[in-house]
Amino acid sequence: MALLADVEFSIHASNAELARRARVSEPTVTRFSRSVGCRGVRDLKVRLAQAMAVGRIYLELPPHVGTDLARPALWRSVFQEIRRAIAAAEEGLRREDIERAAEAISRCSKLAAFGVGGGSTLAAMEVQNRFFRLGIAVSHTSDPILMRMVAATFGRGDVVVAISTTGMAKEVIEAAGIAKQYGALVVAITKPQSRLASIADIALGVHVPEAPDALKPTASRYAFLAAIDLLAASTAYCKPLEGQTRMRRIKYELLKGTDGNSNGPLGD
Questions:
Q1: Burial classification of residue 130, based on how many CB atoms lie within 10 Å of its CB (0-12 exposed, 13-18 middle, 19 or more buried)
Q2: Which of 7, 28, 201, 252 has CB atoms 3.0–4.6 Å from 24's, for a disulfide?
Q3: Residue 209 CB coordination number (10 Å)
């Protein structure tokens, strides 16, 4: 616990200083280093430094935690990160790529969205939620085996939307590659210049650097949702009369048996 309480100190302190901080003898510090798989105290410090380089936000508490300033600081930072994520999407997405993808989706026979993990799975679900309203035969999956199976049934005239915040999700890359092999068009919503972006026919670049606070949910999902909304709206604009007709039918059915308020959202 003494090591993790102040990792920066532990990396640069002498053996004697570490022993005093932990209230143990110097030989105990050496024995502890070996008990956790290190060759000695120096090796332990090297590994601590590496851990700090990779995951400082998982070792150090954010500012103001445990003080009266914590709550207002948290509120401000959460909404700031959301705004920053949406701004990153607006800046990173290119109009010509969105329009090409929307045109392809508006003409497709089938559409599938692939994504694994928390944020990408939710984004894939949102693709289905947005595009079925336009009368497009759309599905989503985050199961690696099912993704491969669905991809193998796709061909020319079909579109896959592959989603990955890092662009390194092996399962998504492999499934997208299978669909492409059989002639489907692959649209990737992912980090620019990533592996997934490199295999996509159309790459919609979205990247939001991780905020330095492990206790807050990542805001990158807002950027991906913004990209999906933009893609859905652009697709609807490719066939506006058809889109309006389907939306009107959905609204009509939703109003049945309700108070008749037509000002609410298209779905609860």
A1: buried
A2: 28
A3: 9
